[in-house]
Design goal:
single chain; transmembrane helix; cell membrane; ABC transporter permease
């Protein structure tokens, strides 16, 4: 009966991994679903993975710790189901945290590259509460001393047939001075002629080429047409279509300006920043951000998300400690006679403690390694689904943080083994040998 259950569990795990691989092959948009099934399959197979994985490190334990290391390696896989169940708590927690760390660090690197490579402006103006900037701020900044170029990021949409296309209203002639726009075909000067500039991806999807005239329906329902004046390389800062603010503003009941980019004479300086603050009436609701602030703005939400997940990791570690303590306590209780015999033939108390501690460390690190491996895979899989939306996205593996996770897992094992190891070392040899 037990063999039948084990075979069924194995078959289920393999089926889930196979299904995940099949789903992942069907398209990037559902690769995340495939990764989920594959991860569930691996979690189910953890008890079977414990033997071969721990067998790889057993020679190192023997070489470093002698008899205590050999016994710890053997004891860790004596009951694979129990070992798997204990390691699973830590593996699941580290899967989530590692996956989000990989994803967060990769996205943060992409956004950081976007700000350093694409934003040439010395300052970015936003409202502190995250709402839109009033159009009066544009006129005020234009009159400020030291301002050489400024362009808003004015959000808009218009309809092309049945599709809604996101557009950004900018200031012709100034936008190329505050943002790095890599033109593939055509010229940015076409913006001043009331034409639109389209990124490569949108142009390919819509079949637009430079010189093509596109019928559009604006936000107020009025129809018109826009000519494609240039095609530019897709970036992470701008939307898919750029137009002159004069083209879209008449069709907006209340134009929404998410931010304003400002270039100043002489670059960033205290005098220029003070001039911008004064021009905006020293309004505390409006933030004047330099390049460092811009980078922090784009990466701040990701860092906040990661900090929350690290808090969840602390909870996962606490749960893992309790699981390892429970497993080792049961293991010591079941092996009283064996421990008594080992004591009788010469295994002293310090080595008994070392044996139990090493067993705990092996189980904890095993769960951590599985979690880190699965989390890295999960981070990669989710990244594949979003990299089309974040053109500068590239996988970045945070090896330093992964190293910290593994060290923390080892510490979990050491802390969890303190009470069981002490109990095992205090066993009376004669009573333990007589125990059934």
């Amino acid at each position: 009966m037990r063999n039948s259950i084990g075979a069924a569990v194995t078959a289920l795990g393999v089926a889930l991994i196979t299904a995940g691989a099949a789903i992942g092959e069907n398209g990037r948009e559902i690769i995340g679903g495939g990764a989920f099934f594959a991860l569930v399959g691996v979690i189910i197979l953890i008890p079977l993975l414990s033997r071969p994985v721990i067998a790889l490190v057993r020679p190192l334990l023997v070489r470093a710790f002698g008899v205590a290391g050999k016994l710890a390696g053997q004891n860790a896989v004596r009951n694979p189901r129990r070992t798997g169940a204990t390691a699973s708590a830590l593996a699941i927690g580290l899967t989530l945290v590692t996956g989000l760390s990989v994803l967060g660090v990769s996205m943060g690197a992409a956004l950081d590259k976007a700000t350093t490579d694409q934003i040439k402006a010395d300052y970015m103006i936003e409202t502190a509460a995250g709402g839109g900037v009033d159009r009066s701020a544009l006129a005020a900044l234009d009159r400020a001393p030291g301002v050489s170029a400024l362009s808003p990021d004015q959000s808009a949409y218009f309809r092309v047939k049945d599709d809604y296309v996101a557009a950004t209203g900018v200031t012709p002639g100034d936008v190329e001075r505050v943002l790095d726009i890599d033109v593939v075909n055509g010229s940015l000067s076409s913006l001043g002629k009331g034409q639109m500039v389209v990124d490569e991806k949108t142009a390919a999807e819509q079949g637009w080429k430079v010189g093509a005239t596109v019928p559009v329906t604006f936000d107020d329902g009025k129809k018109g047409s826009l000519k494609v004046g240039a095609v530019y390389e897709e970036g992470a800062v701008l939307s898919s279509v750029l137009v002159d603010t004069k083209v879209i503003t008449p069709h907006e009941a209340r134009p929404y300006i998410s931010r304003i980019y400002v270039k100043t004479d002489g670059g960033p300086s205290d005098a220029n920043e003070t001039a911008l603050v004064n021009a905006l009436g020293k309004n505390p609701a409006i933030s004047v951000m330099d390049q460092k602030d811009i980078r922090d703005e784009f990466g701040g939400q990701i860092n906040m998300m990661l900090n929350i997940m690290y808090g969840l990791l602390a909870m996962a570690l606490l749960i893992a400690v309790l699981g390892v303590v429970n497993t080792l306590a049961m293991s010591v209780f079941e092996r009283q006679q064996e421990i008594g015999m080992l004591r009788a033939i010469g295994l002293d108390r310090p080595r008994v403690k070392r044996m139990v501690r090493l067993e705990a460390v092996v189980i904890s690190v095993f769960g951590a390694v599985v979690g880190v491996a699965l989390g890295s895979f999960l981070g990669w899989a989710i990244g594949q689904t979003i990299k089309d939306e974040l053109p500068l996205y590239a996988l970045v593996v945070p090896w330093d943080r992964i190293g910290v996770f593994l060290v923390l897992a080892a510490l979990v094992g050491v802390l969890a083994a303190m009470w069981p190891a002490r109990s095992a070392a205090k066993l009376n040899m004669l009573n333990a040998i007589k125990a059934e």
